Amino acid sequence: MKIKFLYIFLFMVPGILLYTMFVAYSFGYSLSLSFFSWPGVGPKIFVGFQNYKDALVGIYSTEFFRALSHNVYFFALVTLLELGLGFLLALALATQLRGYHVFQTIVFMPNIISLVMVGFIWGMLLNPQIGLINEFLRSVRLGGLARGWLGDSDIVLTVIILVNVWRNVGFYILILLAAILNIPPEFFEAAYIDGATNLKITWHIVLPLVKPTFQTLTILLFIWSFNVFDLVYALEGVQAGPFRSTDVLGTLFYRTAFGGLGSARLDLGLGATVASLIFVIVFPVSILYVYFVERKS
Questions:
Q1: Can you say whether the dihedral through the CA atoms of 231, 235, 238, 240 is positive or negative?
Q2: Selection from 55, 119, 67 nearest residue 248 by Cα
Q3: CA distance 90 to 216
Q4: Mean pLDDT within 172-194
Q5: Is 19 inside a domain boundary?
Q6: 3-state class (DSSP) for residue 45
Q7: Using an 8 Å Cβ cutoff, are 232 and 248 in contact?
Q8: Of 102-116, 191-205, 280-294, where does mean pLDDT reach its minimum?
Q9: Looking at the domain assignment, is residue 4 inside a domain?
Q10: What is the pTM of this model?
């Protein structure tokens, strides 16, 4: 028995070491750094909770809460669109119509493209002068709708979210499709014998049985939405323009910790504070999800 546990421990050691080096140590160092003021060179100055005060109620609070509100909006819209559209398309694919494998491959293909490449491609498509989106609108006599999609502060964040949906929806389609196909066919047969319509079957059979998958995807979307950075950076850069209208916590952290044109303050300590606050937001929600939702299931 002792030899068995020794083998188990030896197999766990590499994973424990990697986790300690790249996750636990990094998090602990970031947390400790949040109590200092340090531009990256020279001595660190201990400031206690001053960084947290600046971010939450002080001179930096406007930028922090603006970025936080954009993350909340990002989460709400991607959840509605990616899960809603993903479920509808998964439901259509579950009928296994002719050629559904081809469509399944097509909708998943954007998911294998890196977010930086997605940003470059859509940056070209949305270009106000040479972009295909505006050229298409003009070609079908809808030139009045053409605009600088990435330069309009009223719509640019929504545009970026739609690009994110285009890239990621294939993943949610496949996950939801697997959940639907996992429902025993006897349920549908019994429902049809009882005279149930497709709408009633969807509402009373499919949705309740797919609900756990929805719950898991929702919490994953919450975590990913509060860590979004790549796509905003690729399309709008570190300044998250225009006028910070696309600023999220990820770009705020990067701009604060590592600098950028027009940075309000270059301070690795304050950047670590932003990262710690992201953790404070995400971690309790994840714990509550596990405690209430999973426990109920």
A1: negative
A2: 67
A3: 17
A4: 91
A5: no
A6: strand
A7: yes
A8: 280-294
A9: no
A10: 0.90
